[in-house]
Amino acid sequence: MASLDDLKKRISSVKSTQKITKAMKMVAAAKLRRAQESAEKGRPYSDKMNNIILNLSSGISDIENAPKLLSGTGEDKIHLCVVMTSDRGLCGGFNTNIIKKAKLYFQKILDEGKTLKIITVGTKGYDQLKRVYGDNIIERISFKDSKNVNYFDADKVGKIIIEKFEKKEFDVCVIFYNQFKNVITQIPQEQQIIPLKTINEKTNSSEDNYEFEPEEDEILSNLLPKNISTQIFKAMLENSASEQGSRMSAMDNATRNAGEMVDKLTIEYNRSRQAAITKELIEIISGAESL
Amino acid sequence: MSEEYSLEIVNPEKSFLLKDDVTEVVVPAYEGEIGILKDHISIISFLKPGIVKVFSKSGEDSYYVNDGIVEFKNNNLSILTSLILNLKDIDKGKISEIQKSAEEELGNSEISDQEKYLLDQKIEVLKSIN
């Protein structure tokens, strides 16, 4: 059994760990509120963008001449996967969940004999992927320095993707991120952004005839790159809210576990202290008796 | 009949402005300025760097926009833009900063004519408000 001193040391070290996790939880909770707010505020933009594109693409009759970003290159050989993770750890299963989802997809692509290219956004994703898929990673991006998620960072990623697309470096582009549902649940998502999947739901609203200035195709070819940045920005916002949520619940659990551990150790400490006292008493008494 | 319609300006971070007593909006569209009044035909167009003027019952406001898309439908005008600044509380330093980076970009010889044209526009507008 550990000595009294050892136990004392362990208790104090667990207690200080608990303080740290508690503080991290508080920080995450405060950041979460802000991240959640900006995720909600960012929705109108991406929704509007989506609407306009839907309206436009439903008006396009001849698919052959449609912009490549919308219709694709017509091939399906090279897949570019953009894996978006966090820059910091200690956030529970946040990064692992995205990576798991992404790896499933990677395996599928490789099994089908297609080429896989990876861009990682956030350092944690790179750390987890470099061992197995190190050769496939063509670019890694990190926004460790920017405090908040901002559109210009997203635009940078978007521009990289478009540049590669124009150089015909890939046919299909998929992004992976965590969608924020609530503090406990984050759903890893895969979303195909090139070619754009037009949802054929409400496309019947094409009665409203728009006047276009400049021409329809010119608008589309200008709008689609913007849409990619917007989608990435949306993913980044969702991701940052998810990261904070995930960290908050992970740190909450850690604090609780540390509390349990302290209780257990305290009981053990008290017991062994009592045992030592009893032992001493017995020694004294039996010594007195033998006289 | 009232002459007002509603306007929404959104940038990626948030919904920048919501107004439903707008009488006229003048936007710097790609092929020249457009003034939009109530019951305008549905239109989608691009913005080039310039000034958006909003006339409403409560007065007149001007904003600088970097780029954007404008959509008008059923008397709802939406403007999507990546950067928008209210001219009233504008920061001179920020303007010069944008202007400087635009000028630097213009110095880059690899850009297309179209980009050059846009950058020229941008610098001109920025100079005029600074």
Short description, anyone?
The complex is a heterodimer of chains A (291) and B (130). Chain A is α/β, with parallel strands linked by helices and 291 residues long. Chain A contains six helices and six strands, in the order ααβαβαβαβββα.
So, the CATH homologous superfamily of the largest domain in chain B?
F0F1 ATP synthase delta/epsilon subunit, N-terminal
Number of strands of chain A: 6
Placed side by side, the strands forming the largest sheet of chain A appear as: 3-2-1-4-5
How many beta-strand elements of chain B? 9
- Domain count of chain A, please report it: 1
The major pleated sheet of chain A works out as: 5 strands, mixed
Low-confidence stretches of chain B: none
CATH architecture of chain A: 3-Layer(aba) Sandwich
CATH topology of the largest domain in chain B, by name, is ATP Synthase, domain 1
Count the helices of chain A. How many?
6
Topology:
The complex is a heterodimer of chains A (291) and B (130).
Chain A lengths: L3 H56 L8 H4 L6 E7 L9 H18 L3 E7 L1 H11 L3 E5 L9 H16 L5 E9 L5 E9 L16 E3 L2 H74 L2
Parallel strand pairs in A: 1-2, 1-4, 2-3
Antiparallel strand pairs in A: 4-5
Helix pairs in contact in A: 1-6, 3-4, 5-6
Chain B lengths: L4 E6 L4 E15 L2 E5 L6 E5 L2 E7 L2 E7 L2 E6 L2 E5 L3 E3 L5 H16 L5 H17 L1
Parallel strand pairs in B: 1-8
Antiparallel strand pairs in B: 1-2, 2-3, 2-5, 4-7, 5-6, 6-9, 7-8
Helix pairs in contact in B: 1-2
Structural account:
The complex is a heterodimer of chains A (291) and B (130). With 291 residues, chain A is α/β, with parallel strands linked by helices. Chain A has helices spanning 4-59, 68-71, 94-111, 123-133, 151-166, 216-289; strands at residues 78-84, 115-121, 137-141, 172-180, 186-194, 211-213. Chain A has a single domain (38-250), classed as Pyruvate Kinase, Chain: A, domain 1, CATH 3.40.1380. Chain A has six helices and six strands, in the order ααβαβαβαβββα. The A-B interface holds A 38, 41-42, 44-45, 48-49, 52, 55-56, 150-151, 154-155, 208-214, 219, 222-223, 226, 230, 233 and B 8, 10-15, 29-31, 34, 41-46, 69, 71, 73-74, 78, 80, 82.
